[in-house]
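[#protein-structures] MJ: dropping SAM domain-containing protein here for a structure pass
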Amino acid sequence: MSKGSTEPSTTSTSLLATSEPSQAYRPSEDTSDYEVSLKLKSLQKYLEPLGILIAKCEEQVESSISSTLSPQKQSYFRSSLSNLVTIRSILQGSEFSPPGSYSRLQFLEKIENQLASAVQRLGCYYPCHSRDNGDKKNKVSPTAQSFDDFLKKNSLEEFKHVFVEHGISTVQDMKNTSEKDLVELSLPLGARNRILAYFRGLVDGTR
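AK: finished. structure tokens for SAM domain-containing protein:
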């Protein structure tokens, strides 16, 4: 969508490959709002890995502009990014109309299945895993991990020299770095977003 276009008041989505047109939500034909609300609440665990997926996709879009990828591939990355951003807006509470004959609950369940597959393919762990796993006494604070581990976990190893040159050599240093600071480091958009998504997870208590 171009910058000059007008956003609709609701998120009409064709995320799931379907030839059926999107239809307005009609309460009498859909599952109760309560069940939809419960499903949305259960999907909150995907917000963190979804942020990582979006950051990775943004990086692919950014790099594809200057690469030799075919127009079809570039279009695929842009479409994927748009779909992921739309899913995130739904999980964050934006109104939406399910496509075709889907009820809102069925559509959310299909989104859940897609997210589970995408997260599994990327080797990500759901935020709830860290809450459910074992003895909390043995848990290491995310900011206490080694800087190299942090860079590796977030696919930032290639930028280590940039961080070190600017006095960023620990995870705590990185946590104290603002979004404006990251822009001034001339990091790619995808790299900046991965860093911001990681520390948003700490603030939200999902890490």
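MJ: nice. Residues 175 and 199 are 7 Å apart (CA to CA).
AK: one more thing. The longest strand covers residues 11-12.
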